């Protein structure tokens, strides 16, 4: 008996379907434990070249797979969220700091008011697919300041 490789479109369709399922039903994927948290520092920085730096603290308990602190920023309530890096989390139940730096197209994020979303999440394998398990998530209004130039 021979096994044929999966067709690229079938694999892509399966991955797309899984992503849509996750977006449609986030509550079914896993909720944060009460002892887990994430905070966002009230200020971040943005450089002329579009480099954004955000930070805060997190606390999480042992994960079954690698856990990350991800962050995103947007400046208009209906504007796009722009991902700003990710940090590997140490889920030992103690509070730790996180800092993410990422580059967005220059001029798309500027000094001023912004909204930051920080999430502590792991991708747990379930039925052969890595599904997100959320340890903590938070939306915060922050002020972005111009990054110092050297």
Automatic annotation (TrEMBL):
Span of domain DUF6299: 34-146
InterPro entries, per the entry: DUF6299 (IPR046266)
Keywords annotated in UniProt: Signal
Stretch forming the signal peptide: 1-31
Region called Disordered, residue ranges: 75-95
Record's keyword annotation contains Signal: yes
Superkingdom classification of source: Bacteria
Pfam families noted in UniProt: DUF6299 (PF19816)
Coiled coil: none
Keyword Repeat: no
Protein's UniProt name: DUF6299 family protein
